[in-house]
């Protein structure tokens, strides 16, 4: 590529190619610029879109870039000030991820527009990076085989994950059913416990009532008399419960604060000769 000293450079990559003796890859342009490969790739793309450079892929599919002689440009002696760059290059990286240098104005004062679109070469470079071929040693046919194998593995893993998700959903559904059944059984047990508790309360109340009635009948049957006691009055012994009740009411009417009726139940008999004979009252439990 011939270049003259008075040619206005579009960007830093343009200046590097003007000084180069041979076509350069992206890595070589980036090293000459002292910047990253994405920045160099973006500037090369801007030159390519302007029709100022051409790409010549070499072994491994790595593209090398060379300036095209512009019809209106007065090109001089090529690469009079440049130096040879290393020949080993990495694969092309996708431009647009790093900040690039702003291109200087062209001859008419207008700056070329820089696009963020992915180029085919950039896509291929990304694929090479994904399969571990960053230096572009795998041919395109083999690269397609790697891609197909990766897609097959991805589809298989996706199917396995789908099966695992379905199994987990089935387990969760089973757990939800078990929890619901347990909750229903617990609610039934609580209701049954409350019912039995209420039945026990009713039965105990009925038993206590029967016991009170039984005790009252036993005492009435065993009594031989009734003692009426009222404050400040002499006790009276009566044989009939009706008369004892009337005497107690009469004492209250006469001004007594209260009157008690006590059943007189024999507990034993003392006989001559210092003999004692107990009398068991006819009550339940004795």
UniProtKB/TrEMBL annotation:
<keyword id="KW-0175">Coiled coil</keyword>
<dbReference type="Pfam" id="PF01022">
    <property type="entry name" value="HTH_5"/>
</dbReference>
<dbReference type="InterPro" id="IPR001845">
    <property type="entry name" value="HTH_ArsR_DNA-bd_dom"/>
</dbReference>
<dbReference type="InterPro" id="IPR036390">
    <property type="entry name" value="WH_DNA-bd_sf"/>
</dbReference>
<feature type="region of interest" description="Disordered">
    <location>
        <begin position="92"/>
        <end position="113"/>
    </location>
</feature>
<feature type="compositionally biased region" description="Low complexity">
    <location>
        <begin position="101"/>
        <end position="112"/>
    </location>
</feature>
<dbReference type="GO" id="GO:0003700">
    <property type="term" value="F:DNA-binding transcription factor activity"/>
</dbReference>
<feature type="domain" description="HTH arsR-type">
    <location>
        <begin position="22"/>
        <end position="55"/>
    </location>
</feature>
<dbReference type="InterPro" id="IPR011991">
    <property type="entry name" value="ArsR-like_HTH"/>
</dbReference>
<dbReference type="InterPro" id="IPR036388">
    <property type="entry name" value="WH-like_DNA-bd_sf"/>
</dbReference>
<protein>
    <submittedName>
        <fullName>ArsR family transcriptional regulator</fullName>
    </submittedName>
</protein>
<feature type="coiled-coil region">
    <location>
        <begin position="179"/>
        <end position="213"/>
    </location>
</feature>
């Amino acid at each position: 590529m011939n270049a003259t000293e008075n040619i206005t450079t579009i960007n830093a990559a343009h200046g590097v190619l003007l000084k180069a003796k041979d076509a350069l890859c992206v890595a070589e342009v980036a090293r000459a610029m002292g910047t990253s490969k994405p920045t160099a790739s973006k500037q090369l793309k801007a030159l390519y879109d302007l029709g100022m450079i051409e790409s010549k892929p070499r072994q491994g599919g790595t593209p090398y870039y060379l300036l095209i002689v512009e019809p209106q440009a007065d090109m001089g002696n090529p690469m009079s000030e440049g130096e040879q760059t290393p020949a080993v290059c990495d694969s092309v990286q996708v431009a647009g991820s790093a900040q690039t240098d702003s291109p200087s104005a062209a001859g008419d004062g207008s700056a070329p527009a820089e696009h963020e679109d992915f180029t085919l070469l950039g896509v291929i470079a990304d694929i090479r990076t994904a399969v571990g071929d960053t230096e572009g040693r795998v041919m395109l046919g083999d690269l397609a085989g790697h891609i197909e194998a990766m897609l097959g593995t991805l589809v298989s893993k996706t199917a396995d994950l789908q099966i695992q998700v379905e199994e987990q959903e089935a387990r969760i559904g089973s757990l939800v059913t078990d929890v619901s059944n347990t909750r229903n059984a617990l609610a039934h047990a609580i209701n049954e416990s409350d019912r039995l508790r209420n039945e026990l309360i009713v039965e105990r109340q009925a038993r206590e009532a029967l016991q009170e009635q039984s005790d009252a009948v036993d005492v009435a049957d065993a009594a031989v008399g009734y003692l009426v006691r009222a404050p400040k009055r002499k006790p009276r012994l009566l044989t009939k419960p009706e008369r004892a009740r009337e005497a107690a009411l009469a004492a209250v009417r006469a001004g007594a604060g209260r009157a008690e009726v006590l059943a007189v139940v024999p507990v034993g008999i003392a006989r001559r000769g210092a003999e004692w004979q107990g009398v068991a009252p006819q009550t339940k439990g004795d």
